[in-house]
Design goal:
Elements lengths: L1 H34 L27 E7 L12 E11 L2 E6 L4 E7 L8 H4 L17 E5 L6 E3 L27 E9 L2 E8 L2 E12 L2 E10 L6 E7 L3 E7 L2 E6 L5 E7 L6 E6 L3 E6 L6 E11 L3 H9 L20 E3 L10 E6 L13 E6 L4 E6 L4 E5 L8 E7 L7 E5 L2 E6 L2 E6 L9 E6 L12 E6 L5 E5 L27 E5 L6 E6 L5 E4 L6 E4 L9 E5 L4 E2 L19 E3 L7 E6 L12 E5 L4 E7 L8 E6 L9 E4 L6 E6 L10 E8 L7 E7 L2 E6 L5 H4 L5 E6 L21 E3 L3 E4 L5 E5 L6 E11 L5 E10 L39 H10 L27 E3 L5 E3 L2 H9 L22 H13 L3
Helix pairs in contact: 5-7
């Protein structure tokens, strides 16, 4: 009977199991049938202007990385208190703290409101062209603070700044304390909490910051897990500058403030704590001493500031405090689970190079702005993206059609990052917080551990000391670029250095090499104003560009080698200042007023761009093909424009290892000619006829231009189809440079083309140009046609650092004899251009062609423009930064064009280069006539 009962139970179980299976099968079938014919919703267009974005700080996410100025917290707080890198933590109970990752200290803790969003990334987040950034401060009532000294020390308490002093008087030191003293390891996210990880001496420590509610007031909590230590460890928990009396009882210390003793700052250990003592020095410094021991230790600390009458309530809260540090080794729940689908736009094959558009994930469930700065591929169809607001996105589905692009969020909270690299499957992001390596511990698609790979590159609080670029070195490690501390934005603690610069960190304006383990760093090159980088991924050739401005006369493209110096004395960081390294080439301001990164095309899918270097221009926006003249002992070369359509600034690029095509990212903040805020583009070679020059070089006796197609002989040998001119720049403290002839006088030299020789294969020309010599800029313009009838006009820009003899046979010009070159000529025979009378139409054309429209509005919409608008400019009264004023008449406008720094308009930064020698008197008069037509 028992066996029969069991058999019936088994049969019943099987039947029930089959019913469940049948029911599930039916449900799955219904779901499948209902999905048939139902198209996935994909975003196909992004209109940033119409989107409503949520706040920069996201509810439920526990931190952002920023800086903080806590020098003016008020009576009772330390005055020397400023941090360039902090985690701004949301602790609950309207309580917040800034943890300084350079000094491992709580810079400040407060209650009330969070921080005002005032950094550059924050103010421009939903007000796209707002550049009125300020130094971050707290938004509520300060409770706890420490001064500028380490939060932890080993052996003895250390209450002074141990970092290397700044070489500039009155400027504070910046950067982390030495790794031997202490090191920031990183941070684990866990729901609405974070667990901090760092090392003090040889001891690993984890900390859980938090808060308790005390009758509506916040008590700050710090829970610690400390590994065994052979020496005493000291934590500086708070500093009270108006301490009057100290009271010590049990595991508590209370410092009464002011003679009235109405306020008190208190520390208390969690009940049952052993091996830990509380100390107070000078009625000012509240310290925690952790004794040496052989075992792991967990202890908790409560920190509170309030009225003396509320001390009993605080003591009661202490009794209820329990130390509970979560196990974060396996990660936590993901913050973002949704997938956003977009559909790209593949351009028709109308030219040799076209740009396809990969639609960005806007809108998204979090109402998050997406301003892409950089990308790096994870395999063939997947990439990691970083945004200026500090988010990391993963993009999957990158194929030929771009029909289904899947976007997911991976990380957030980083500090104005501009670079991302994927190395051996691991994601590295570089921002003002250093290089962060992101780990997905539980493989749920969201980062759980934000590891400090390296923060050894010193960072000041100067807002323009950008962490601008990072490239992976083939041998391991990274090269990183840092802007100089440009004299722009809010005043901080740094005095002026040279014109256009402030004293800042000892790494500003430098290229640094970071070791493969991130534990050491060295200066690789210096003397930059605002560098960006490129690197050949196989050969390791490091390249860069810089921003035109003070001591940087135009846009250079540089080959960067160990110990090179590129001409900005404020960022030389060595004495004596060495000789200036010349660039590969300069690019004129009107062609590229803001150079950014480079990318080497290491694929076979880009036609004439295969194995070539591409330089990206932010301001144009667009791309240049860079040629390096390998025959010269001194590096030199040239640049030519790669035609294409670029709707947003072009900043960084990467080659997809799958399709071999070039993908381009960028976003708008400064003056530019773009139509949209941000875009992700794919530059694709279609196989159609390319008219790009394959090579161009200057040789003794002339200029060689080489093309892919056979040239029309009649057109190619017509002297009238070529114009050659040259000029030098002056490297001075003024912003940019005018153009100067070789004898130092103002202007440009026109050079005659005395003869033109067609190569044996009819694909190249040798222009016989006399008096070839070293010069910073040579421009060659040409009008040509192919043998098949395609016509085009173009220009190349070259720099001549060294004059080489031509190898005529090797270059394919067997018909040329050396005697045919370097012919004598009468300079007076060079025809001067007879200019027509100035007129407003020509002035408008010049204004547009020289890119002035990117910085100066001609209507009432000055949004996104870094210079003053010109509508209604003529005859108006101008107020200047020095407090003076003037009427904008012809004399003032002419001075503003040839010497823009002489009078800088109030509210502007003075970032306009001189057009002295660039524009003729006739040109300037035409532009002024155009301004007169733009009445209010």
């Amino acid at each position: 009977m028992t066996n029969s009962f069991r058999l019936n139970e088994v049969l019943r179980s099987i039947l029930l199991d089959n019913r469940i299976k049948a029911t599930l099968s039916i449900l799955i079938l219904i779901a499948f049938l209902s999905s048939c014919g139902k198209e996935e919703i994909k975003i196909t267009e992004v209109d940033f202007e119409k989107e409503e974005f949520a706040g920069f700080v996201e509810a439920g996410f526990p931190f952002i990385t920023t800086s903080v100025d806590a020098r003016e917290l008020g009576e009772g707080f330390p005055e020397n208190n400023i941090s360039a890198r902090v985690l701004a933590l949301q602790l609950g109970n309207e309580a917040y703290a800034c943890f300084d990752t350079d000094m491992l200290r709580w810079t400040v803790a407060w209650t009330g409101d969070f921080m005002p969003m005032v950094t550059m990334a924050q103010v421009s987040y939903d007000d796209f062209y707002n550049k009125g950034n300020q130094l971050p401060t707290i938004g509520g009532e300060p409770k706890i603070a420490t001064g500028t000294y380490p939060g932890w020390s080993a052996g003895n308490p250390l209450l002074t700044d141990p970092r290397k002093p700044s070489p500039h008087p009155q400027s504070p030191p910046w950067g982390p304390v030495s790794p031997e003293m202490a090191r920031w390891n990183g941070m684990y996210t866990f729901g609405d909490k974070v667990v901090l990880s760092y090392q003090v001496g040889a001891t690993e420590i984890r900390e859980l910051p938090g808060s308790l509610s005390l009758d509506g007031q916040a008590v700050f909590s710090r829970s610690f897990a400390v590994e065994p230590s052979e020496e005493h460890l000291y934590l500086a928990a708070a500093e009270v500058s108006d301490g009057f009396r100290t009271e010590v009882k049990d595991d508590q210390v209370l410092v009464y403030q002011g003679q009235s003793e109405e306020l008190v700052t208190a520390l208390a250990l969690a009940p049952g704590t052993s091996g830990v003592k509380l100390l107070v020095e000078e009625n000012r410094y509240l310290l925690v001493e952790v004794e040496p021991r052989q075992q792991d230790l967990e202890f908790g600390l409560l920190i509170w500031k309030g009225e003396a009458a509320e001390i009993p309530a605080f003591e009661s809260a202490v009794q209820d405090f329990e130390v509970d540090i979560p196990d974060v080794s396996q990660g936590g729940k993901p913050y973002w689970t949704e997938e956003i689908l977009t559909k790209g736009k593949v351009s028709p094959d109308t030219a040799a190079f076209v740009t396809d558009r990969l639609t960005l994930p806007v809108p998204n469930p979090w109402k998050r702005n997406v301003r892409l700065v950089d990308m790096s591929f994870i395999g063939e169809e997947k990439a990691a993206m970083v945004t200026f607001e500090g988010d990391v996105w993963l993009l999957d589905g990158i194929d030929e059609s771009l029909n289904r692009l899947s976007w997911t969020r991976f990380a957030s909270g980083l500090y104005e990052p501009q670079s991302i690299e994927v190395v051996d499957g691991e994601i590295y992001v570089y921002g003002k917080d250093g290089i962060t390596r992101l780990h997905d511990l539980n493989e749920d698609g969201v980062a759980d551990y934000y590891e400090n790979f390296s923060n050894l590159m010193a960072q000041s609080i100067e807002t323009r000391e950008w962490a601008s670029d990072m490239v992976a070195a083939p041998e391991g490690g990274f090269y990183v670029a840092k802007f100089g501390a440009l004299d722009m934005g809010p005043e901080t603690s740094s005095p002026k250095s040279l014109m256009g610069f402030r004293s800042a960190s000892h790494h500003d304006g430098s290229i640094l090499k970071v070791s493969a383990d991130g534990r050491s760093i060295s200066t690789f090159a210096s003397g930059f104003r605002g560098p960006y980088l490129g690197i050949h991924p196989e050969k390791g050739w490091l390249t860069g560009s810089d921003q035109q401005g003070h001591y940087m006369p135009s846009t250079p493209v540089m080959l960067i080698r160990k110990d090179d110096y590129f001409g900005v004395p404020a960022t030389a960081h060595r004495d004596p200042v060495p000789e200036v390294t010349p660039p590969i080439t300069w690019i004129p301001h009107n062609q590229d007023r803001s150079g950014v990164g480079q990318v080497w095309v290491t694929s076979e899918q880009m036609g004439p761009l295969n194995d070539q270097m591409i330089h990206l221009s932010y301001g144009r926006p667009g791309l240049f093909l860079i040629k390096v003249d390998s025959a010269s002992e001194l590096v030199q070369g040239g640049a030519s424009v790669i035609p294409g359509t670029f709707p947003a600034p072009t900043m960084k690029a990467a080659v997809n290892p799958g399709d071999g095509l070039v993908y381009i990212t960028g976003f708008s903040l400064w003056g530019h000619n773009s139509e949209t805020l941000s875009a992700l583009l794919r530059l694709r070679y279609t196989g159609k006829e390319s008219l790009l020059p394959l090579d161009y070089k200057v040789r003794d006796g002339g200029v060689i231009l080489r093309f892919e197609q056979e040239l029309d002989e009649e057109k190619a040998t017509d002297l009238a189809n070529y114009q050659v001119k040259r000029w030098n720049y002056l490297r001075t403290e003024k912003y940019g440079s005018g153009h100067y002839k070789l004898d130092g006088s103002v202007g440009e030299e026109n050079l005659p083309v005395l003869d033109v020789f067609l190569s044996d294969d009819r694909k190249a020309v040798f222009l016989s140009v006399p008096q070839i010599t070293e010069v910073m800029q040579m421009e060659v313009a040409y009008d040509l046609a192919t043998a098949k009838g395609s016509t085009w006009s173009d220009k190349v820009w070259m720099t001549v650092n060294e004059v080489q003899l031509p190898n005529l046979i090797a270059e394919g010009f067997s018909s040329i004899h050396q005697d045919d070159l370097n012919k004598e000529f009468d300079p007076s025979s060079v025809a001067s251009n007879d200019e027509a009378a100035p007129d407003a139409v020509k002035g408008k054309e010049l204004f547009m062609n020289y890119g002035c429209i990117a910085c100066h509005a001609i209507d009432d919409n000055n949004e996104g423009k870094i210079g003053p608008g010109v509508k209604g400019l003529y005859g108006s009264e101008r107020e200047f930064k020095d407090g003076s004023s003037a009427i904008a008449d012809e004399a003032y406008l002419k001075e503003s064009i040839i010497d823009p720094g002489a009078k800088v308009v109030k509210g502007r930064e003075g970032e306009m280069p001189s057009f002295l020698g660039v524009l003729s008197e006739n040109d300037i008069d035409s532009i002024i006539l155009y301004f007169k037509t733009l009445e209010n």
